[in-house]
Write a structure and sequence with these properties.
By secondary structure, the chain is α/β, with parallel strands linked by helices. The protein has a single domain (6-124), classed as Rossmann fold, CATH 3.40.50. The chain is 55% helix and 16% strand.
Length: 152
Amino acid sequence: MSEKVRIIIVDDDETIRKSIATVLEGAGYLVDTAKSGKEAIEKTDSKFYNLALIDIRLPDMEGTQLLTAMKETTPQMVKIMLTGFPSMQNAVDAVNKGADGYIVKPARMDEVLRVVKEHLRKQLEAKEYSENKVKEFIETRVKELENKERPT
């Protein structure tokens, strides 16, 4: 990506926020953090983020509730859940509410980087595909309109 990728880390554990932020910043990403769901919603309302790493248990709401709220603020943002309480039900709930990925804590930093890079690559591919589809539509529509204006 030519522009800097923006990532927000939402976790009530300061050590986890700082550790992940340090690794992601070292990889060249712009990183912001939030310690609660409310703070994350406020930040995503005012800034664009490409990706969010969200703890499944936050002090003011469940991470899955935050997924739904973030879908409203930034629909195309990649949302990856972080959990120290892995269960099949958590995973199913997260996916059903819009999570794009799921990382179990304690997470290895190489795994976090791998998952982030993979999802950002998919996001970029989807964006490029959408832009090409819009371009094709416009080109086709222009030709249609030009043909209508020409007498037969």
